[in-house]
Write a structure and sequence with these properties.
The complex is a heterodimer. In chain A, 75% of the residues lie in helices and 0% in strands. Chain A contains seven helices and no strands. Chain A starts with 5 loop residues before the first helix and ends with a helix. Chain B is elongated. The chains are: A mainly alpha, B alpha/beta.
């Protein structure tokens, strides 16, 4: 078996120790955790800056302007530079322009997309027959009918819950409460599903510690 | 039938066929001249001996309702493309600028039967049309079985074409015969030119919906400006906001506000900033410090503006501390580590999580619970709502986050907008009920697709 190099062993040790120190926060805050936190934040911020420079500034700004003479790129560049005006109190108001530009573009683009995805598609998907008769067997028809009725009542009751112009009282209040039950059922399912994914992340980290660092995984499995 | 006669008949037939092809009269067969052999009983020729039959009726049409960047192709399958035959694996589509070529591969369809393909390799940008220095090989496949098999050649990524040009297409069936790649003769179509449309007719319902929503919102904004009072029902989580700020003031501890991981143009972030403004003003009035760690520099800038304005409104501009609204990092979990550390050290009395969250929501809420904070969350991130509901004291779910701003500020414009949303929700519910009734009647009465009831449902179809 080929012996791993010094830097490989060193990096595994560093990663393992940093992992354990990060987990130490579960007990309580401590100086080692603070060091790891600062290291993590600093490294990620620096790395992020380098990535933006390499993947955005150079290919999307510098090369088109310098190599291809695409001067239109100067417009977003100037808008971006206006953000830096915040460092000078007298002209700091200029930094509102790029923000207004970004928020305006974002809102304008999201309105039709929201109407399409969150309203029309959902409405069309809910317009199902509460009585299904075209399945192969009577049992399938019954199951599909019940499923559709649950879907229709669920959507309408949740919609009623998010209606803010009427207080949740009386029969209407009970219908809204039904909407809350539907929401909680869906949250429960989502919770379980996501917890499983998180557990798999934990397993990945523990596997790293046992196999790559301590090399005891194979022994434990025997 | 005796084997000899069959062979004899087959040889005779082949001899005749080859002679006919060469224009020579075939010699009269000397053996078995009177044997007649039904065609069905002839031994089948090995598949490899016959070339693949090409697909038929290839059509190339401009893809409607787009910006002239796609051509739709369709064809009838090759006669060899039978459901029980494995000979045809798919179809290869090529494009050329002249009828005689050269044709270049623009894609492969790894599906059998009726063929469809959309050539989207067009671009208005001249830069995109330049051939790459080293084009990475790409199968360019469409269809469910896009993974090419061994033996199928990998095609270079197609060079994008100018939408203003005229193009010709050819489609050929391909397959593997004894591990060897084989292809039919091509069937051609063209010329065709992509056309651009100013209006996407497939999305007219989206346009109508947008216009209707805009009219309703503007109408209610007008009512609000004229001073009409609108009722908004109490929202439990929001009533707790003032209590949480009061608790922080009494304990002499700061507030912590996290605006999620969304960008400055995300609707949830915009709603979060409006809530931050309200919290900031109350905090300024009560002299409570507010900490706002940020993950996005643009969001940080906007939040500084919002909090600064809150302090101005509260009449305490000097109490505003810009450094309390600070950038940490844009890396998700590094940001979480930083916020969790802040919670442990600063021990805020109340934490607000408003905006769009991802996997970090649970970690933040757990760290807040460990620090003993009262926690109020609000998000429209459906996947994170279960975690915030279970770990926070109050949670604003989805639409409640948007309503929160109007409820807290009681500003007429926001209340008018909220009221307009309620009316639109009622309209949606009414349309839903109508659609459900029509769908039910369609099922019971076996209505045809052309009936107006089922057409009503199709009004909501989007591409």
């Amino acid at each position: 078996m080929e012996h791993p190099g010094f830097w490989h062993v060193f990096s595994v040790w560093v990663a393992a120790l940093l992992t354990l120190i990060a987990y130490s926060f579960l007990y309580k805050d401590n100086p080692a955790y603070r060091f790891v936190e600062a290291l993590f934040v600093g490294v990620s911020a620096g790395y992020g800056l380098a990535i933006v420079y390499r993947d955005v500034v150079i290919p999307d700004l510098w090369k088109p302007i310098h190599d291809e003479g695409d001067l239109l790129r100067l417009i977003p560049a100037v808008i971006g530079v206006l953000m830096l005006s915040r460092f000078h109190p007298k002209i700091s108001w200029l930094s509102r322009w790029p923000m207004a530009f970004t928020i305006g573009i974002g809102a304008g683009m999201s309105i039709p997309a929201t109407i399409q995805a969150n309203i029309l598609k959902q409405v069309q998907g809910t317009m199902v027959s509460p009585v299904v008769l075209d399945k192969a067997t009577a049992m399938e028809n019954a199951v599909a009918s019940v499923s559709n009725v649950v879907l229709i009542i669920g959507v309408l009751s949740v919609l009623a819950y998010f209606f803010f112009s009427k207080e949740h009282t009386g029969g209407y209040g009970r219908f809204c409460k039904l909407g809350i039950y539907f929401l909680m059922f869906s949250f429960g399912a989502s919770f379980g599903y996501t917890v499983m994914a998180r557990v798999s992340l934990l397993i990945g980290r523990v596997t790293f510690l046992l196999y790559d660092w301590l090399h005891v995984g194979a022994v434990l499995l025997r | 039938m005796p084997k000899r006669s069959v062979l004899g008949g087959g040889v005779a037939l082949l001899l005749w066929a080859s002679a006919a092809a060469s224009g020579v009269e075939p010699p009269a067969p000397r053996e078995a001249p009177s044997v007649s052999v039904p065609v069905a009983e002839l031994p089948p020729l090995a598949p490899a001996e016959l070339p693949l039959a090409p697909p038929a009726a290839v059509e190339a049409k401009d893809k409607p309702n787009d910006d002239a960047t796609a051509i739709d192709l369709s064809w009838r399958p090759s006669p060899d493309d039978a459901p029980d035959s494995q000979r045809v694996m798919g179809y290869v589509v090529r494009r050329a600028e002249a009828p005689d070529g050269p044709y270049v591969v623009v894609g492969r369809v790894f599906t059998k039967g009726e063929g469809k393909f959309t050539d989207s390799s067009f671009s208005w940008k001249s830069k995109d049309r330049e051939p790459p220095e080293s084009a990475p090989p790409s199968p360019g496949g469409q269809g469910p079985a896009a993974e090419p098999s061994a033996g199928i050649p990998t095609d270079p990524a197609p060079v994008r074409a100018d939408p203003r040009g005229q193009y010709y297409y050819e489609v050929a069936a391909f397959g593997l015969s004894e591990g060897r790649y084989e292809e039919s003769a091509p069937s051609r179509a063209g010329p065709v030119t992509p056309r651009e449309y100013w209006l996407d007719r497939d999305q007219i319902n989206v346009l109508v919906g947008t216009v209707l929503c805009t009219i309703v919102v503007l109408g209610f904004l007008g009512f609000a400006r004229r001073g009409r009072d609108f009722y908004v029902r109490p929202i439990a989580g929001l009533k707790a906001v003032d209590d949480a700020i009061g608790r922080a003031t009494e304990m002499g501890r700061p507030l912590l506000f996290v605006a999620g991981l969304g960008g400055v143009s995300d609707i949830a972030t915009v709603a979060a900033m409006a809530i931050l403004g309200r919290i900031g003003r109350t905090a300024a009035e009560q002299g409570t410090r507010i900490l706002v760690p940020c993950r996005d520099p643009m969001v940080m800038t906007a939040q500084r503006e919002v909090v600064k304005e809150s302090y101005l409104e509260a009449g305490k501009p000097d109490a505003y501390v810009e450094d309390d609204i600070y950038f940490t990092t844009d890396s998700q979990f590094a940001y979480v580590a930083s916020v969790a550390g802040t919670m442990a050290r600063e021990r805020p009395a109340a934490c607000f999580y408003m905006g769009y969250f991802y996997a970090e929501a649970l970690i933040l809420a757990e760290a807040g619970a460990m620090a003993g904070c009262i926690q109020i969350a609000g998000t429209d991130a459906v996947m994170q709502l279960p975690f915030l509901v279970t770990t926070c004291d109050y949670t604003l779910m989805g639409e409640e986050l948007y309503a929160a701003t109007a409820y807290l500020t009681r500003e007429p414009r926001l209340l008018g907008s909220l009221k307009a949303q309620d009316w639109l929700k009622m309209a949606v519910a009414a349309a839903l009920v109508c659609g459900v009734v029509f769908a039910g009647l369609g099922q019971i009465l076996h209505l045809p697709e052309t009936s107006w009831m089922l057409k009503f449902i199709s009004l909501f179809e989007t591409r």
